[in-house]
Write a structure and sequence with these properties.
The complex is a heterodimer of chains A (342) and B (402). In chain A, helix 3 runs antiparallel to helix 8, helix 5 crosses helix 7 and helix 7 crosses helix 10. In chain A, the strands form two sheets. Chain A has a seven-stranded antiparallel β-sheet with strand order 4-3-2-1-7-6-5. The longest helix of chain A has 34 residues. The N and C termini of chain A lie far apart (81 Å). In chain A, a hairpin with a 2-residue loop joins strand 3 and strand 4. With 342 residues, chain A is of the alpha+beta class. Chain B has a domain of 38 residues. Chain B is elongated and about 105 Å long. The C terminus of chain B is likely disordered. A ten-stranded antiparallel beta barrel of chain B has the order 1-2-3-4-5-6-7-8-9-10, surrounded by five helices. In chain B, helix 3 packs across helix 12 and helix 8 crosses helix 9. Chain B is an alpha+beta fold. Classes of the chains: A alpha+beta (342), B alpha+beta (402). The interface between A and B is large, with 68 and 80 residues.
């Protein structure tokens, strides 16, 4: 079977000279040949020995002939028609169908967006749960100790809290941890002067809860501090530090893979979505820890609003930086509202 | 009537000489025939000799690079790539990369011929798996332990020059123009001297040697690259790299101060008006925003435009020269509006942003041919190496290309 000649440029691979030729596809299926003629050339290699380059968008297709010569096809539509006539299929035909129309491309894009959103929102937390279950508690201990060493060097100073007060608070913590089954050692308490992080409490993966002198000073009574401790015990019980580590590493990698390839804006497009998503994860963990604390407080007849009181004072103290999509903690007002509901 | 031996062919063009030789009656005018063939041989010798000399500045033929792609078309390719990458849990990303590169290469046209991209997706997939494993280990280590992070950072610094060479070799050998491949000479001692040695020097001198490092890096990457049988020659001056660094630093400081003042002004205005405390988030947002959206594009646009001009204007390939006409203000404008539009459209503008950069880049690069480009010669036959190094470099953002 013969079809009309197709315009092409031949490059011989030895010089950058251009030779105007015409191409014809003859024969059917595996017996198809590519007949190249013009400018003193007349060759007809088998189509199966020719590497048919992909056609992307409206660019010219490159055909790598046996030997070193290359053909740049100038009339794409005619060549595609001829290729169809020989019965040879190329891998990209399906893709071109999707890319060719705005509607299919947009539908695909929207479903991809929904898919990524659903994965980040539901799939990844569930996967992280499973992954964390596989990590032995000794890993938590190791990571926690390393973190505390770094914080001690960079941020914290030794605590100036009276030892009687320390003993009292340790006893309070023991009361909270008593209610929960611990696979390893139960959480312990460490006292530090907060320095740059001011009034704060941190639950390290190792189960060490760091309470800053500034936070103790800010509290009105021990019920408020018991609320804070219960919140931090909640973080440890749910292994939030390790889950955050797994979830945020995975989401950062994923989003960098999807968006991290833009000239001049790569840091922004790779980092910004990851920052937003990881902040959302962090807020989820805070809510979970709050729920843990409120439940424990209710069981022990401490009004959950006592934790809310301290949170409100904390919020006023730090200048109302809370809330918004970048924040690592939920809005103070929201947390207080939830506390009053409990 | 002409008699034999009186032909005066001194003013003949080469084509006229060739035509005369085919037409002449050799038996009737043997002397004229000899004269003609001698003249043609001499002419050919001269031409060959001339093509070996550096071209005189007047005799250069200018060829502009043209970019023929457009944002709408690339958007559809990009979004299909994205959807299939997600649907196949990342496996399609190797094919997606090849399609993207093909799109940008094949839409870059020089003297009527498009560039070609010939990487095999399977090789890229293998490379991506290795790179993802390494990057995953690195990201984990970063959060797990300081000591592990330092060890890994040290290892990365040690293998970076090797990785960059391997990666450039891969990228060069899968890139073609008119059926001729680019290549990259794997000069490892040179790579360690420039990419690690000068980097360490610039760290030790607290950045004073950084412009020198930039210059050596460009020079190394360009001059080890070859096209066909010819290696690129690259000798940019050192001065412009220093002035670009000083001016760039001053520009960034200026932009940072103005932006910080604007942010502070906006905040005090908000507080004065007694608007909701929620709005004080402005302060919280301002620092990363200034960094990502303003300082990055300004610094990158300014230094890239000026450095690329200096490099291109001092690069040659045999008798051919190059010229760069990047306008720092234009490039900064393109980068800034790209960032703004990408943020405003939640990423949907990314394909248009990339096409804008590619189009401007092509419009600012000129090839000044010292002899017909057709005469570039090549000795074919060098297979591309594995893609692992290229993928690791791009995952770790080590890409130093144009």
């Amino acid at each position: 079977m013969d079809v009309a000649p197709i315009r092409a440029q031949l490059y011989d691979g030895h010089t950058a000279a251009v030779r105007a030729v015409t191409v014809r596809l003859t024969g059917v299926a595996e017996y198809s040949r590519v007949r190249v003629s013009g400018d003193g050339i007349d060759e007809a290699p088998f189509l199966r020995d020719v590497r048919i380059g992909e056609r992307v968008g409206s660019t010219n297709r490159l055909l790598e002939l046996p030997g070193h010569a290359t053909l740049e096809v100038l009339d794409n539509e005619a060549f595609d028609a001829a290729l169809r006539a020989t019965g040879v299929r190329t891998a990209e035909q399906g893709l071109r169908g999707l890319e060719g129309r705005w509607r299919t491309a947009l539908i695909l894009g929207a479903s991809a967006l929904v898919g990524v959103g659903a994965f980040l929102w539901l799939g990844l937390p569930a996967l992280a749960d499973r992954a964390v279950a596989l990590i032995p508690p000794s890993a938590d201990t190791y990571i926690g100790e390393d973190t505390l060493r770094v914080l001690d060097k960079t941020t914290f100073e030794p605590s100036a809290l009276a030892s009687t007060r320390q003993v009292k608070l340790r006893a309070e913590l023991a009361e909270i941890t008593h209610d929960h089954q611990w696979p390893g050692a139960a959480p312990t308490l460490a006292f530090r002067r907060g320095g740059a992080i001011r009034a704060n409490a941190i639950a390290l993966p190792s189960g060490v809860i760091v309470l800053t002198d500034e936070l103790v000073a800010l509290s009105k009574d021990d019920d408020e501090l018991r609320g804070v401790l219960a919140h931090e015990v909640g973080h440890v019980a749910h292994r939030h530090a390790l889950r955050m580590l797994v979830q945020s590493s995975a989401s950062t990698l994923l989003l960098a893979g999807v968006f991290g390839d833009v000239s001049g804006a790569a840091p922004l497009t790779a980092a910004a979505p990851a920052i937003l998503v990881n902040a959302a994860y962090s807020r989820d963990f805070e809510r979970q820890a709050d729920d843990f604390a409120f439940a424990w407080m209710a069981r022990h007849h401490i009004p959950p609003a006592r934790l809310a009181d301290l949170l409100e004072r904390l919020g006023a103290n730090s200048g109302g930086e809370n809330g918004g999509f970048l924040a690592s903690h939920p809005d103070i007002e929201e947390r207080v509202r939830v506390a009053h509901r409990n | 009537m002409a008699s034999d031996g009186d032909i005066d062919c001194g003013s003949f063009t080469r084509a006229q000489l060739e035509e005369a030789i085919t037409r002449i009656d050799r038996k009737r005018f043997p002397l004229n025939y000899d004269r003609l063939t001698d003249a043609l041989a001499e002419r050919l010798r001269q031409e060959r000799f001339l093509s070996c000399l550096p071209a005189p500045s007047g005799g250069l033929t200018s060829h502009e690079l043209k970019f023929t792609g457009n944002g709408g078309e690339y958007f559809r390719i990009w979004i299909v790539n994205l959807a299939l990458t997600i649907a196949t849990l990342g496996i399609f990303s190797a094919w997606a990369k090849v399609r993207k590169q093909r799109y940008f290469h094949s839409n870059t046209v020089l003297d009527g011929s498009a560039f070609g991209y010939h990487a095999e997706p399977l090789k890229i997939l293998k490379g991506r798996i290795i790179a993802a494993a390494l990057l995953g280990a690195y990201v984990l280590a970063l959060r797990v332990s300081l000591a592990a992070t330092l060890v890994i950072l040290g290892l990365i610094a040690l293998i970076t020059p090797w990785l960059i060479v391997k990666s450039r070799a891969f990228v060069s050998r899968v890139t073609s123009w008119r059926g001729i491949r680019f290549d990259f000479r794997e000069d490892y001692p040179g790579a360690y001297k420039t990419l690690l040695g000068y980097l360490l020097l610039s760290v030790i001198t607290i950045g004073l040697m950084f412009p020198r490092f930039t210059r050596e890096r460009y020079t190394f990457l360009v001059s080890r690259t070859s096209f066909g049988d010819e290696e690129f020659d690259c000798g940019p001056r050192i001065g412009p790299f220093y002035s670009t660094a000083w001016l760039g630093g001053a520009l960034v400081a200026g932009v940072g101060i103005v932006a910080a003042m604007l942010a502070a002004g906006a905040k005090s205005l908000i507080l004065q008006r007694g608007l909701s405390p929620q709005v004080t988030k402005v302060r919280y947002l301002s620092l990363p925003l200034i960094n990502y959206a303003l300082v990055g594009p300004v610094l990158l646009g300014f230094t890239k435009a000026r450095n690329l001009n200096e490099v291109l204007n001092h690069t040659s390939l045999g008798p051919h020269r190059f010229a760069g006409s990047f306008d720092p203000a234009r490039l900064i404008g393109i980068y800034l509006t790209n960032v703004l539009l990408i943020v405003c459209t939640a990423g949907a503008f990314i394909p248009w942003a990339e096409v804008r950069v590619a189009r401007y880049r092509c419009s600012a690069i000129e090839v000044k041919a010292g002899s017909p480009l057709d005469q570039i010669s090549a000795t074919p036959g060098r297979a591309a190496p594995g893609a692992a190094s290229e993928e690791v470099s791009s995952f770790f953002d080590l890409d130093f290309g144009f």
